[in-house]
Specification:
- The chain folds into 2 domains: about 130 residues, Jelly Rolls (Sandwich); about 100 residues, Arc Repressor Mutant, subunit A (Orthogonal Bundle), CATH 1.10.10.60.
- It has about 250 residues and is of the alpha+beta class.
- The strands form 2 sheets. Strands 1-8-3-6-9-10 form a 6-stranded antiparallel sheet.
- The protein has 9 helices and 11 strands.
- α1 runs antiparallel to α2 and α6 packs antiparallel against α7.
Length: about 250
């Protein structure tokens, strides 16, 4: 199914009896389960298993692409927990073709074979994804929610300790034990996705650098390439090519 949502659109917590492959061809969205945030720029998706409660917020205008899967019909051992997906060119094309199918189709038909291939390709595209574990501690949640809304916040962990009424050592321990990563790594992940969102909506690299509070464009470029494997310019070129191809295929 293809759906479009405006910036700020929010789908409250819900669950499905089917599994879902969820991604956006354009725009950035945030998925939230009980234990995790998923920050999804274009062509990064999530496999959401059946009956996992989740909610979605559109950070920008979003062109959502969703494949609903009756997992009992496929013997593919799909994960029972959310998993990130790097949506490949082949997977995009398969989903575009599948969107024209009727909801019902015959066993061993062309439709079923194509969808089986789509699920096989999805499994090959599983990745860690831009996932941010959510801490249960209310002090941790305050920090995380603030950074999600303002990823350019430059306050140190010591600053946050004064803000939320805890010691720096306590907050450092909480980030490690409840999210599995450090405060610096958590904030860096938020900034990467914010950068991807800004770049994909036409912001200049200099604007993104200023918004995220980096001292220089060079420092931002080093961080961006270390996390994504590409420079901001390379990311923009790949995104432009992918969106052009997708527009042609959907026409």
């Amino acid at each position: 199914m293809f759906k479009e949502y405006p910036a700020g659109h929010h789908i409250p917590p819900h669950q499905h009896q089917r599994g879902q492959l969820i991604y956006a061809s354009t725009g950035t969205m945030r998925l939230c389960t009980r234990d995790e945030y998923w920050l999804l720029p274009p062509f990064r998706g999530v496999w959401m298993p059946p009956y996992v409660e989740h909610e979605m917020s559109a950070s920008t205008g979003v062109c959502l692409r969703t494949l609903y899967v009756n997992v009992e019909s496929f013997t593919l051992n799909l994960p029972s927990h959310p998993v990130g997906i790097g949506v490949t060119a082949l997977l995009r094309e398969l989903l575009i073709r599948a969107s024209s199918f009727s909801i019902t189709y015959h066993p061993d038909s062309f439709e079923e074979r194509l969808l089986r291939l789509a699920l096989e390709e999805m499994k090959q595209a599983f990745e860690c994804g831009l996932k941010l574990p959510i801490g249960r501690d209310k002090r941790l949640k305050k920090i995380c929610n603030t950074l999600l809304e303002n990823p350019g916040d430059v306050r140190s962990l010591a600053d946050w300790a004064n803000e939320v009424g805890a010691t720096t050592r306590t907050l450092s321990r909480l980030f490690r034990t409840e999210t599995g990563i450090s405060f610096i790594q958590w904030r860096e992940q938020v900034r990467i996705v914010s950068a991807m969102s800004g770049l994909s909506t036409g912001q200049r690299v200099s604007q993104v650098v200023e918004h995220l509070g980096y001292a220089s464009q060079g420092a931002f470029t080093v961080m961006f390439k270390r996390v994504t494997g590409k420079s901001p310019r390379e990311y923009l070129n790949d995104l432009s090519c992918s969106q052009t191809k997708l527009s042609r295929m959907e026409e």
